[in-house]
Amino acid sequence: MLKPLLLAAAAAVGAAAEPAARTNVLLICVDDLKPALGCYGDPHARTPQIDRLAAQGTLFRHAYVQQAVCAPSRNTLFTGLRPDQLGIYDLATFFRLAKPDCQTLPQRFQARGWHTACVGKGFHPYHGNSDDPAGWSVKPWYPPRRPGMEEVRKQAGIEGKPAAWAAPDIADEEMGDYQIASEAGRLLGGYAEAGTPFFLVVGFLKPHLPFIAPKRWWDAYDPATLPMEPVDAALPAGAPACAGTDSGELTKGYGGMPARPPLPAATARSLVHGYYACTSFVDAQVGRVLDEIDRHRLRERTVVVLWGDHGWHLGDHGLWCKHTNFEQAARNPLIISAPGRRPGVADGLAATTDLYPTLCALAGLDAPAGLPGRSLVPLLDDAAASVQDAVVHVYPRGPVLGRAVRTAAWRYVEWRRWEDGAVQARELYDLAGDPRETRNLADDPAWAAACADGARRLAALGDPVPQVKAAARPGKG
What we know:
By secondary structure, the protein is of the alpha/beta class. It is built from 14 helices and 15 strands.
C-alpha cells in the first residue's frame, strides 16, 4: 500500500514544488534523554552512534525544552508554541482543544507535498491523550507488544507494581525501539525508491522508565564506576519547596520504592545503571536508522535532527525523573545535521520552539507568523553565532506556575499564583559560577540587577494562559 502513495506524492511534488522543497527531514525524538552522551562530554556514556551524528552536524550545547514533561514538550515541538501560550501543562489534554486551527509542523510540510509519517512516539498518545491525525499522510505506527517483553514485565513486578528496572537476557529484537528502527528503515527504503520528499518522525521510547534493556547493554557498564549523587542531596540552599518534585513518577508508579526520596544507595545505583544501559540501547537503534539513511544515499538531501524531549534528574538535588525548572530537567540534547553545513559545536542558546522555524527554513518554506522561536540556521552556518540571549521554560506546581528565563549566565524563576498572579517565590542561579545550582541568590543584593532583568523579561511575555479545562479527547492511553 505504501509504494503507490509514495509514487503519487513524488509526482505531485515534482510537478509543483521548487527544488529547495525537496529537502527531506528525519526528526528523531528520544523520550527522557538527557545530555548524558559521549558527544556532550559525559565520560561514562557509551553512545557511539549519537556521537557519530554529532560529528556530522551541529551539536547545541545549550538547548532547552519549554516544559520538562513529555506531552507539553512535544506539543511545543510540533506547534512551535510554549505551554504558557497554549495553556496545556498536563499529559492528558489534546492540544487542539486549545488551538483547533493550529497548523502543526508536519502539517506545514504535508501541505506542500511532503509525505509525512510518524513511527513510534511523536505526540504523546497516552494518559487519555491522542496523536493528531491531521498531520500525517499515513496512520502513525506503533510497535506491537512482544511476548518476551510481556514475560519480563510479569516476572519483574514488585508489590503489584512494575519494577523500575530489569536486565532480561533477551535479544534486542524483543524491544519496541528495535521494531521502531526497523519500521523507520522500511519507510526510508520506500522513500528512496520512489524519490518522494519526506518528513519522518522516529520516536524512541527509551530511556523512559522502566529501565528495561537487554542484559548485554547492562553488561557494557561497571555500575561501580558510574556517577552517583550523595544520598543526602537536597534542594539548593534558599530554594522554595515548590522548586522541587516528590519524584512521584518513580516512587508512586513502581514497586520497591520508598514513598519519596531519598532512595537507598543500592536502589539509586541500579537506577543510574539502568538509565545508562537504556541510553546505550537506544543509541544503537538510532545508529540503525542512520545506517539506512546512508545505505539509501539520502544523506545529501536530508536534514537529520536528534532531539530529547527533556532532561532527567538522577538524584541531583535529591530528585528523580523530570518535572522541575532546574538545569538537569530543562536542558536537552539537540543535534542538527543539515546538507551543506559544516559540523560544529554551538554555544548559543536554543529552544524547542526554534525547531519549527529552523526546519521550515532548511526546507525552503516560510514559517507561520507569530511563532516565538528563532531559526537556528545562523548557528549551523557559524557555530559561534547567536540568535537570542534568553530562552523561557515553565513548570506548574498546584496553585502556582514557575516561569523561568535562562540566559547564558543565569536562570531566574518566578512562582506566581494562578488565582491572582501574585509572586509567591523567586529563584536566581548563577549558572556560570554555580552550574550545579546549589544556592538560590534571589535575595542576594549583588544579584538584584539580574533579578530585575529576569522579571522584566517575564513581564514582557504577558500573562500565562491557564490550563485548558475541557475534558481530554479520548484516545489510546
